[in-house]
Design brief:
Length: 225
């Protein structure tokens, strides 16, 4: 059940961060890549059963692209994908996938990566690190813009991700997002996640609730109250 979680950058000129979890769900390594070829080499070496990507992997109904010059359009009353509207209705804010998005380049790249990996037979899911934080910690998460946010994650993530302790002091926000994305993938393989969205547009995978590890190191996620 090995997993690679990716915090993808919008361009191959900038490093993307990844976390690999081994068959026991423990940290294998944390690193970065730029070009697609580097990612493919990494995945060939790690041989994960699942890749989780923390970026939009699909377009909403009605849109063939995100170009303002194209006549394609969202259905009336829609802001983005069903998955994003589902999250928003449950109090989890997100960037909507539409032509006014500030992450258009990231969306295009994420779709390209997903397509390439799936064509090679790799299982891929979309995760959303912020939603994972909200669910795992029952909404009690400092805003990312605040200094205490990183301190909070450096303290709490090693409590639930086996083997992360030695890396804790070096975690930045990109690494934390890669950890959260990989952990979402791990939880999905043991039935501790749910999917929001629809089959036509694709799903976002999120934990079902707060997570802990018991004395034996086994994962446990209880339903949020």
């Amino acid at each position: 059940m090995s997993v690679v979680g990716i915090d993808l950058s919008a361009s191959s000129k900038k490093p993307s961060t990844y976390l690999a979890l081994d068959n026991e769900g423990a940290v294998g390594d944390i690193g970065s890549f730029k070009a697609m070829e580097e990612l493919l080499s990494l995945l060939e070496q790690r041989g994960p059963s699942l890749v989780a990507i923390g970026a939009p992997l699909s377009l909403p109904s009605g849109l063939c692209c995100l170009e303002e010059s194209c006549p394609c359009s969202l259905p009336e009353g829609r802001k983005g994908r069903v998955a994003e509207e589902d999250l928003a209705s449950n109090g989890i804010g997100c960037f909507y996938t539409n032509k006014r998005s500030i992450i258009v380049k990231l969306i295009y790249r994420a779709i390209e990566v997903r397509t390439e990996l799936e064509q090679r037979g790799q299982s891929v899911i979309e995760a959303y690190p912020y939603a994972t934080k909200v669910k795992l910690f029952n909404g009690k998460v400092p805003a990312k813009s605040k200094p205490e946010s990183l301190m909070f994650l450096r303290r709490r993530l090693p409590e639930i991700v086996a083997g992360l302790g030695p890396y804790a002091k070096d975690l930045n926000h990109d690494r934390c997002d890669a950890v959260l994305t990989a952990y979402t993938g791990l939880l999905s393989q043991v039935g501790l996640t749910e999917k929001v969205g629809c089959e036509e547009e694709g799903y976002i995978t999120i934990p079902v609730g707060p997570a802990t590890r018991n004395g034996a190191g086994e994962l446990n996620v209880s339903l949020a109250q």
